[in-house]
Amino acid sequence: MKKILVTGGCGYIGIHTIVDLVQNGYQVISIDNNSRSNPFILEGVEKITGKKIKNYTVDLCNFDDTQAVFEENKDIAGIIHFAAYKAVGESVEKPLMYFDNNLSSLLNILKCCAIFNVPHFVFSSSCTVYGNPDTIPVTENTPLKPAESPYGMTKQIGEDIIKDTVKTGATNAILLRYFNPVGAHRSADIGEIPLGKPANLVPAITQTAIGKIPSLTVYGTDYDTRDGSCIRDYIHVSDIAHAHTLALNYLLEKRNKTNCDIFNLGTGNGYTVLEAIAAFEKVSGVKLNYQLGPRRTGDVVAIYANNDKAKKDLGWMPETTLEEMMHTAWQWELKLKHDENLFSGKNTILN
After folding, report:
1. Who contacts 215 (Cβ-Cβ below 8 Å, separation ≥6)?
2. Whole-prediction pTM value?
3. Catalytic: which of 151, 234, 250, 271?
4. Residue 184: C-alpha distances to residues 44, 189, 263, 273, 297 (Å)
5. Annotated catalytic, 178?
6. Which candidate, 122, 310, 325, 152, places its Cα nearest to that of 237?
7. Phi and psi of 332, rounded to 5°?
8. pLDDT 10s digits, 242-298
9. Whose CA is closest to 309, among 253, 259, 245, 243?
10. Three-state SS at 23
11. Beta bridge partners of 172
């Protein structure tokens, strides 16, 4: 069993990827300082897989503490690097915090890759690197436009740092540009827990539906789209997670043609915000309380993926419909409501 380090392993995509890795025969350890997550979510992994995952509560911006994890685990065969701040709106308000956290942590992980000869590295990138593209769907060769937010800029810079780093070392890398991960594991044992008021659409929808927040705002209804709201490529989080396992397999089996490869992870379908709301209302039977508001700084008008390369080279195929995504997100929200007394003692985010 090859040992894989997942940074940000208690986060939304990280925790689903840990499940997928374990179910595909990997041994997994996690680094997460739990500043924006909570280790209780690892109990869900144990329920699903029967495996207990070790998490190191380490701030990756501290190089000495990060290096100590590698000293203790000198047999790491690959790294999947999720750990980063990810709220677009917050990054606009606090750009220096985003540059410091997201880039310092990446640099420290790459330094440890070099010191400990870790051969395989998978980076959690984002469709935000494309900015406002001239044409859609975007391919991996679509020219990158200026990022619409400091968060997006950290992903652009992070990709460039990795590309330059692997040119001279023994590490091979894959950059996974994914679009809008939504939903939860079908078991409802793990899912997304936003910090404070959710910045992303689907948790805002489910929290509105269950009454945690009074109403949802649709930001912008005058865009040049089907109904005036932004278009996004929503993809189920478990489909995203499985792509990371396939990316590791791709590197371990030496099928990569270059030392740094790039893949889009999206369904290839674009849905407007209002269409996503309608899909949720259909599967949940709940009429959502939402209001139409002005555009939000940092938002891209419309973007969705051409995923042909990931299908061809990784053998990846997204399998979940938008309605199924909304169903799993709602089941997770209901689970949180049902188990709120259990979670309240472990999870300060829910208090």
Report:
1. 208, 289, 290, 291
2. 0.94
3. 151
4. 12, 8, 23, 19, 28
5. no
6. 325
7. -65, -45
8. 999 999 999 999 999 999 999 999 999 999 999 999 999 999 999 999 999 999 888
9. 243
10. helix
11. 120
